[in-house]
Design brief:
By secondary structure, the chain is mainly α. Helix content is about 65%, strand content about 0%. The protein has 40 helices and two strands. Helix 15 packs antiparallel against helix 16. It is elongated. This is Adaptor-related protein complex 5, zeta 1 subunit.
Length: about 800
């Protein structure tokens, strides 16, 4: 974790003895008594911070040193503020000398002092006292003392509200709401910092304050906002900026504080009435209660910001600032409308106009998401048609901006946080799952957790089959997205674009349909494509691309989530279809090292689980299962899936599992298994393959014995094969089993089954036991004597 040099310093700091430490304290006090601190003093402060940090127990510094460190917090040099705060945060204040910023110290409040102040709040009571002191400090007028600390007071208050919202009282809410109204709406409209109107003969007396300007350079004609510019800013203008930065959090916080009866009456049933809207917008807004007045001023402020964002900024950085302010303004309007529904009818015209202006420019995508949130939260109230919004957010954004990491995070977060609301307001979002999965294909590690939460909501009876195919083809989608970007960035004539066969195939009209299917925005155009093997050949060189490999690693995780969701739907027709898909797709996967094995392992697990929950699936899909089990090549290519297919056939192909199971079906299955078992035990493995695993052979033998025990006419055939197997093994090594121990285990298993089949009645009871034997509950059944006998045996075997 640490480098060797760092570990050495930390060990030295831990091993310092108390006498040496006291001498160090005394020397540091002397160094701090000088006005101009030397480099030695700075080095000693850094060493002290390391000593305190490295020790297990928090120490108490001498009172004199404590005072010297406190004085550093008001030093003009920020480096000293940082060091002083860092050291003090590692210590306990002396008893009775806890840090107190109640009066004179509040004038010295800065970022680093605030961090120390919060770190020494030991309980909620301390936070409440701190909150009360800070809010009282806001009441002081500029003439009563320095006002610079006000700019640091609001951030500290914001942190306190985050840590402990319950420390707020109604008086606190009222006072701070009044102050925020004053700072937001009534800040100075002239530039600060002694801005001059210019001129060669301009002197101190001729300097006139200049008006604030807009981002496009024109003179501002309205109240000051965060988007106003000037050569300098006054104190109340800085407070305007700080107030706006904490406004949304404050609205959310004070809304959670218990509301009085007056508040409830103010937000009574007249939510959309004309009377309510007129009263709010009239000049009588000053007569509103403080919280309602703050909402009104916040509404006006945000509308002014949105109007200011129409102006063309002269600097690129200001353009980015406009986008950030738009996001915050829309979020604040959302909060305001959530608290006062009458504001919705005033806000929606502005929202519609803003959406219409920005929707054609995808560079504003991160602004459009909060607008979509606004439509989602309040669209029903104003009966707005949201279809355009959802087509843009669910359709165009993922399709064209899948490689924007910030948008991916925010869009997936939007889906997760609003999932229930989206399912009721925009149920068509499920159809856009091919689009959403582009985020996963492009940057799997960053978003896989989001999709673990989202995937169950995308699984429906109509999308389940197509979604399974899409998940299995996710590495192909990752490769296609890479090719799409390369095709856009590299012209056809560029020599760097040549040499990639997959890129040439992507540009080839003959294969265009394959790639377009992967890049589709919505579901419903088909579960999969016919030429999957062709697609996999075209993308063969992408198998080792890092983005494709990382994507393939996430697919098994999502498949487990998918099958766990499908099982809960309890749709037998759908489950039967999925069994066929698993058999088909086990051989149609992109050839990535270990990818096929992982998918086969997932298929095997859930095939067994599905058949256990619904044994009738084996009879329903018996033709396809028998066809799969009868293909000897599957033993070598799909060992995991093949083993489990044979196991479920032997386990559940019986009358006890499904009354439709006939002797003819059992015989057909027996013959298929017998043929495969005979073929692999009488010949060498095909070239390029290894010997079949012992588990495959023993599973085939067990299935053969189980099927024979259910149709006694088949017992002689099964016994003959098992006896031949024992005879062959006596001659020594065999071509189909390379390990002698494995051969012994296979022969032993064959002898056990052969012995069981000598007694058909016993064989059926052992190989296919009834349910009450495999899942006994005798120890819990109060109607039988077993619980009493168990308790008696327990008492006898335990010493008294």
């Amino acid at each position: 974790m640490y480098s060797h040099g760092s570990e050495s310093l930390i060990n030295q700091a831990r091993e310092i003895q108390e006498p040496e430490l006291q001498k160090f304290y005394s020397r540091l006090v002397k160094l701090l008594q000088v006005k101009e601190l030397s480099h030695e003093a700075l080095d000693s402060l850094q060493r002290l911070q390391l000593i305190l940090f490295a020790n297990k127990f928090t120490k108490i510094l001498p009172a004199e040193l404590q005072q010297k460190l406190l004085s550093l917090l008001s030093s003009p040099a920020e480096q000293l503020q940082v060091l002083g705060s860092a050291v003090l945060r590692e210590t306990l204040p002396p008893s009775g000398q806890e840090l107190n910023f109640s009066e004179e110290n509040l004038s010295q409040l800065n970022t680093h002092a605030a961090a120390l102040l919060l770190s020494q709040a030991r309980s909620r009571a301390d936070l409440s006292n701190l909150c009360a002191q800070l809010i009282r400090s806001l009441e002081s007028r500029p003439s009563e003392g320095p006002t610079q600390s006000l700019m640091f007071t609001l951030p500290v208050l914001n942190t306190v509200f985050t840590l402990s919202p319950e420390c707020l009282t109604e008086d606190h809410v009222t006072l701070l709401s009044k102050k925020l109204v004053d700072w937001l709406r009534y800040a100075s409209i002239v530039q600060g910092g002694g801005a001059s109107s210019g001129g060669f003969f301009a002197g101190p007396r001729s300097r006139q304050p200049l008006p604030i300007a807009e981002l496009d350079g024109s003179v501002s004609g309205d109240f000051f906002t965060v988007l106003c510019v000037g050569q300098g800013f006054t104190e109340d203008q800085w407070m305007n900026v700080y107030s706006f930065s904490m406004l949304r959090h404050w609205l959310l916080t004070h809304h959670s504080v218990s509301n009085t009866a007056v508040d409830a009456d103010d937000r009574s049933e007249v939510e959309g009435s004309v009377v309510s809207m007129v009263s709010v917008t009239s000049s009588s807004s000053r007569l509103l209660p403080p919280k309602e007045r703050l909402r009104e001023k916040a509404f006006q402020y945000c509308q002014r910001l949105i109007e200011q964002c129409d102006r063309r900024a002269q600097k690129k950085a200001d353009s980015e600032l406009q986008k950030a302010c738009l996001v915050e303004a829309v979020c604040i309007l959302d909060c305001v409308c959530a608290e006062d529904a009458s504001m919705v009818y005033r806000a929606f015209p502005c929202m519609k106009a803003l959406f219409g202006r920005l929707s054609s420019d995808l560079s504003f995508a991160r602004v459009l998401l909060p607008i979509a949130q606004f439509y989602l939260n309040h669209g029903e109230m104003d009966t707005v048609d949201c279809e355009r919004v959802w087509k843009l957010v669910f359709g165009q954004f993922p399709a064209e901006l899948f490689n924007d990491a910030f948008l991916a995070y925010e869009l997936l977060r939007f889906l997760r946080l609003n999932l229930e609301n989206i399912q009721s307001r925009a149920p068509e979002f499920v159809q856009f799952f091919p689009n959403f999965l582009k985020f996963l294909a492009w940057d799997s590690p960053a978003v896989v957790e989001d999709f673990v939460d989202l995937l169950p909501s995308l699984v429906t009876a109509g999308t389940a089959v197509e979604l399974l195919h899409t998940l299995l083809d996710l590495p192909c989608l990752a490769a296609t997205l890479v090719l799409q970007l390369r095709s856009t960035c590299l012209p056809i004539a560029d020599p760097n674009s040549r040499g990639l066969l997959s890129l040439e195939a992507f540009r080839n009209p003959a294969f265009r349909g394959l790639f377009l299917f992967l890049l589709r925005a919505q579901a419903g155009s088909g579960d999969t494509i016919d030429r999957l093997s062709t697609l996999h050949e075209l993308l063969a060189e992408a198998a080792d691309w890092p983005r494709v490999v990382r994507c393939a690693q996430t697919v098994p995780v999502l498949l487990h989530v998918y099958f766990n969701t499908v099982v809960k739907m309890d749709d037998r027709k759908l489950l039967a279809h999925l069994v066929l898909v698993m058999l088909e797709r086990s051989s149609l996967l992109l050839r990535i090292p270990s990818y096929s094995k992982e998918i086969h392992r997932v298929f095997s697990c859930h095939l067994r689980r599905l058949c256990k929950l619904h044994p009738s699936l084996v009879v329903d899909q018996s033709h396809e299962l028998l066809e799969f089990a009868g293909a000897t090549a599957n033993v070598y290519n799909k060992e995991e899936v093949y083993t489990h297919v044979v196991w479920v056939l032997g386990e559940y192909l019986s009358v006890s599992s499904d009354s439709r199971c006939s002797v003819k079906l059992i015989t057909s299955c027996f013959e298929a298994v017998e043929a495969v078992l005979f073929e692999i035990t009488s010949s060498t493995p095909p070239p390029g393959t290894i010997c079949p695993a012992p588990r495959v052979i023993t599973t085939l033998m067990s299935a053969l014995a189980k099927l024979a025990s259910r149709s006694h006419d088949l017992i002689p055939r099964a016994s003959l094969f098992l006896s031949k197997l024992r005879t062959v093994s006596r001659n020594g090594s065999v071509a189909w089993c390379a390990d002698e121990e494995d051969l012994v285990a296979i022969v032993t298993r064959g002898e056990e089954l052969w012995s069981l089949l000598k007694a058909p009645g016993v064989a059926q009871s052992v190989l296919t036991p009834p349910a009450y034997v495999t899942t006994p509950r005798w120890h819990r059944d109060t109607s039988v004597a077993m619980p009493l006998q168990l308790r008696a045996l327990t008492n006898l075997t335990h010493s008294q």
